[in-house]
Amino acid sequence: MKILMVCLGNICRSPLAEGIMKAKLPKNFVVDSAGTISQHEGEHPDARSIEVAKNHGIDISEQKSRPITAEDLDTFDRIFCMDLNNYQDVVSMAKNDAQRKKIAMILVEAGEHAEAEVPDPYWGDKDDFEAVYQMLDKACSIVADKILDKK
Ligand code: 4NP
User: Residues 102-141: pLDDT tens digits?
Assistant: First the structure.
């Protein structure tokens, strides 16, 4: 099973989602992340995401930003988006229903309302990054349990 986490820049939210989800699933699961823009390609995650993950015992410092590709919609089994814009951008890349069915908003998959979004903390402060961490930690626990068919 291969899971892809998607946000805009792939430097704040989806690197955290990747690190958190990796920590919750067995090693045979592939968890990766990507952005809908290529502006930060090759960059490590934002220092504030690295710091908040480190505070919770997760190392995301080696990750590197990359843009989502058309192949990702074939390669990955599930694609979880952080907000509605990311979701619409990825859905617009889908070539068929099989690809479309793989794409979801992560908070919706975790049982929240249909437009629930992980807010972009890029222009915010450390507390915004901690809030995103907490939101993703809770959502990834629920989604990992669903994937592992515990619920
Ligand atoms: P992310 O945050 O989508 O969570 O990685 C952002 C990163 C970069 C930008 C915006 C949001 N940016 O405008 O460059």
Answer: 999 999 999 999 999 999 999 999 999 999 999 999 999 9
Q: Is the CB of 41 under 6 A from ligand 1?
A: no
Q: Is the CB of 67 under 6 A from ligand 1?
A: no
Phi-psi sector, 132: left (phi>0), alpha (psi -120 to 50), beta: alpha
Atom of ligand 1 nearest to the CA of 7: 3
Among 96, 99, 72, 71, CA closest to 6:
72
- Tell me how far the alpha carbon of residue 117 lies from the centroid of ligand 1, in angstroms: 14
Q: Which residues are catalytic?
A: 7, 13, 120
Q: What is the pTM of this model?
A: 0.98
Domains observed in the chain: 2-150 (3.40.50.2300)
